[in-house]
Amino acid sequence: MNFVEIRCMAGIYIHIPFCKQACHYCDFHFSTSMKYKDEMINALLLEIELRRNYLKDEAIDTIYFGGGTPSIIPTKDLDAILKKIHQYFEVSSSVEVTLEANPDDLNKEFIKSIYQQGVNRLSIGIQSFINRDLEWMNRAHHANEAIDCIRRAQDIGIENISIDLIYGTPGLSDSEWRDNIHKALDLAVPHISSYALTVETKTALGNWVEKGKIKPMDEEQSASQFEMLMEELLSNGFEHYEISNFAKPGFHSKHNSSYWEGKTYLGIGPSAHSFDKTSRQWNINNNHKYIDEIVRGNLPMQMEVLKLNDRFNEYLMVGFRTAKGISIEYIANEFGSGVLDLLEKSIAEFTIKDWVKFENGYYKTTSAGKLMSDKIAAELFIVDNIE
């Protein structure tokens, strides 16, 4: 494999659009049929070749297998994709290679194989350590499998492990949520991504809420459990570096951080997005059409060229979600002093409310403001194009 020792700035995301079964809350692009798995893997390999010039001379700092459920495919297919990336791109010797996985896929042989192939970070979709909640979500694993797979990965040598946890689910008491957090802490995982349960249209959950079978999510419950999450993790040495992400020092997700920092990335696979700092592209979210077009040598994607105000608004939306915040120097350099003046006038109301503070050249949300980060950004958006 071709490693290089240079400053790397780009990432590659690979979308594996297969799952064993559909979680009731999920609206990501996937199929529960593996009938065309081999054709899909071949198409992914072809797209890597077709888009070999997208990142120009930038080397690869992160590779991320997302989905769907990447751990559902054989390790030989993951290996083939990694080798194809190394064939057509320069890859840093310190590259972070993340695989999203479900606990029921992470047997000893699977973990050993991917570790030998270069996967050095796991993002495990645990969601809960309570079997009742896992059944309600329609997850394929049970709580003991979640615990066992973490210990198994650690024993094999993968220390960089992230787990997902969901709060705000119906019937989840505060004491049960606290127990979930403590189980994660007891397992010594260095990264936790945690999200409030949200109702998305075209999901089983969305359908149940629309038909009145279950009540809408309780926003007060979610806010209370989020505050509990912050309190517990911060007191146990975690850094709250993005609204939904907590990590021990040295274990921030390099790949996700590159999104938040506006770095270039290439998305491979159906529904995958790419960004070259001036435009976004996204592939069609239909497996059959994606395969057909790629085999013909076509890129089945759409593109949006970002206007200056779009870039500014995105910077605010993402920046206020991170611990770093938004830089007044960056805004002045990228968008002009007039935009900075406008921002500083508009943001005053949020500093008065103690939702935003100014520190070392950055505006960032306070503890109270973290619950309002999206609202704050939206209120500061510039609708008209910046001249």
List keywords for this structure.
single chain; 387 residues; alpha/beta; TIM Barrel; Arc Repressor Mutant, subunit A; 2 domains; ten-stranded mixed beta sheet; three-stranded antiparallel beta sheet; 15 helices; 16 strands; globular; disordered N terminus
Helical region count? 15
Mean pLDDT, all residues: 91
CATH topology of the largest domain: TIM Barrel
Radius of gyration: 21 Å
Task: Tell me the fraction of residues in β-strands, as a range.
Answer: 15-25%
How many domains make up the 3D coordinates?
2
Structural class: alpha/beta
Spans of at least 5 consecutive residues whose pLDDT stays below 50 are: 3-8
End-to-end gap: 46 Å
Helix content: 25-40%
Q: What is the general shape?
A: globular
From the 3D coordinates, which CATH architecture of the largest domain would you assign? Alpha-Beta Barrel
Mind describing the biggest β-sheet?
A: 10 strands, mixed
User: Oligomeric state of the chains?
Assistant: single chain
Please give the CATH class of the largest domain.
Alpha Beta
Task: Write a brief structural summary.
The protein is built from 15 helices and 16 strands. The chain is of the alpha/beta class and 387 residues long. The strands form three sheets. Strands 1, 2, 3, 4, 5, 6, 7, 8, 9 and 10 form a ten-stranded mixed sheet that branches. It has a three-stranded antiparallel sheet with strand order 11-12-13, with no helix packed on it.
